[in-house]
Amino acid sequence: MAISLASQGRFGPSIMLKHVALSDLELGMYVHKMEGGWFDHPFWKPSFLISNKDRLNVLRKSRLRGVIIDISRGKDLALPSGETSPSESGATASIKRRIEVISKRGRREGYVAKPISIGQELAGAHAIATRAGNQLHRTFMAARLGKALNVSAVEPVVNDIFHSVRRNPHAFSGLMRCKLKNETMFRHAVSVSALMVSLAQKMQLPRHDVHQCGLAGMLLDIGVSYLPQTLEPSSGSFRDADPKIWQQHVVLGYRSLHNDNDLPRAVLDAVLQHHERIDGGGFPHQLEGSEISTFARMATICDTFDFLLCQTGTACGLDPAKAIDQMKTMEGAFDEEILNHFVESVGLYPVGSFVRLQSGKLAMVIDEDAEDHMRPIVQAFYSLAQGEQITPHRIELARSGEQDCILGIAELAGLGLPDDQHLREMIFFSTYKNVG
């Protein structure tokens, strides 16, 4: 039998709470609190309306001891046959209207519109990246100042990135790859989040898992904010610090998120394990193979790829296509099946890669071709035969009228061109003039 508790407000009872067994849960009930730890359920929010069967089934199959429902905001526990609640009719009508609104919203969110071009999505992606950077700056600074983390403030950012990647899987990541004016830590966090979302979609994970992947990518390096700032190396990157210092960030990040927030276990595992290796040679616990969570194996790949693109105090950033090649040679580091999915999600020649064409031209990949992932869209800018820059022009390699193809990754050294990062930004933003 359910136990009822009334919370008296200024104008009378404002909350009506009941303890309910998982088997008695029904659509339309409002979950006020879940009785159990964060290991026992996968939900981001501690309270919500049970508005669809998927959420109901997850609750019923969870390891929770039970649930406390708020009958002032949702459906009451079914009464014995013949009994009715005085407020049943009004409350039921209100709940039905609310479920209908949420269901319609869910159908709209579940609708996948026809993919749009990278050019059409870039302006929106630029605005999202700016908001994401600002929010992450506030979140990371709060951590550095010893304040409690407000991870819920990051959730809307992840949702924005999720929808951007759905509209075009390459616009957001391509923008972050080619844009120079980003603070390294925040750019990396936002980039990895987008890569995680794209990879999760390529792996056809459930939608709530895709969101959690994006959140995990955003928070992977939150622990860096807890490292002693007096020990920060001159390069500005803790990755160049003593490994004993750097490796502490995964445990520090895990503890801060575990202590301050009711985050899903999958997200916490990704934060703790994203520097583990399949062969057991990683840190902090030298896990191997299936001991490493799926999200963490995904995060290892996305984190490594983006880091290889970043210029640090000790190394220049790699060309995206070179980064893919290097990751393929890192035996024992990654889950090979997930790595293959990752290459499919970003392309063998990701946006921002410099390539050498059969025609003797050098070009940069500016978009993927939706019908032929092996023959992307490029912007040619240099003629090897003439030994000079040429008027930039777009080449759609997959189109039947084009006989050109990619021979390999371009070597730009000694050609008198700007450094790779500046050249990449110049070509990208001259191609897409409507961005920022």
Automatic annotation (TrEMBL):
This is DUF3391 domain-containing protein. PROSITE patterns: HD_GYP. It comes from the Bacteria. Residues 163-359 form the HD-GYP domain. InterPro entries: DUF3391, HD/PDEase_dom, HD_GYP_dom. It holds the Pfam family HD_5. It comes from Parerythrobacter lacustris. Signal peptide: none annotated. The lineage of its organism: Bacteria, Pseudomonadati, Pseudomonadota, Alphaproteobacteria, Sphingomonadales.
